[in-house]
């Protein structure tokens, strides 16, 4: 996904994990996620988001528009091209 970051500059991308903070910090550094403006990396220590969305597997992608309206959920991920098509 980072290779396609130029297509995501007008979106807000939030990576959420229930892994430990040191693990996620290393992941973000390894993939240079914090170097790009649209990426926010955070840890959900209480599993609140996972309980809310109840994904059957990871990764999963949830899309919302600028007004906070739900667009679609993808279990197992999706392509950047698909995200762009749905958020234009």
Task: Supply the key terms.
88 residues, alpha+beta, Glutaredoxin, two-stranded parallel ribbon, two-stranded antiparallel ribbon, 3 helices, 27% helix, globular
What is this entry, summarized?
With 88 residues, this protein is of the alpha+beta class. The protein contains three helices and four strands. The protein has a two-stranded parallel ribbon with strand order 1-2.
Q: If you compute it from the alpha carbons, what radius of gyration comes out, rounded to the nearest whole angstrom?
A: 13 Å
- Describe the main β-sheet briefly: 2 strands, parallel
Q: Pairing-aware structural class of the strands and helices?
A: alpha+beta
Shape: globular
Distance between the termini: 18 Å
- For this structure, the quaternary state is single chain
Under the CATH scheme, the architecture is 3-Layer(aba) Sandwich
Q: Which CATH class?
A: Alpha Beta
Strand order of the largest sheet: 1-2
Topology at a glance:
Layout: E1 13-17, H1 21-30, E2 39-43, H2 48-53, E3 60-64, E4 70-75, H3 80-87
Parallel strand pairs: 1-2
Antiparallel strand pairs: 3-4
Give structural notes:
The protein is α+β, with helices and mostly antiparallel strands. The chain has one domain: Glutaredoxin, CATH 3.40.30.10. Helix content is 27%, strand content 24%. The protein has a two-stranded parallel ribbon with strand order 1-2. Strands 3-4 form a two-stranded antiparallel sheet. Helix 1 links the parallel strand 1 (13-17) and strand 2. The chain starts with 12 loop residues before the first strand and ends with a helix. The relative contact order is 0.18. The mean pLDDT is 82.
């Amino acid at each position: 996904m980072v290779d396609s970051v130029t297509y995501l500059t007008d979106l807000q991308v939030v990576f959420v994990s229930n892994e430990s903070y040191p693990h996620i910090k290393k992941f973000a550094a390894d993939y240079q996620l914090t170097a790009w403006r649209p990426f926010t990396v955070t840890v959900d220590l209480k599993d609140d988001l996972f309980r809310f969305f109840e994904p059957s597997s990871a990764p999963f992608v949830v899309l919302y528009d600028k007004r906070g309206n739900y667009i679609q959920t993808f279990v197992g991920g999706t392509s950047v091209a698909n995200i762009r098509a749905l958020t234009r």
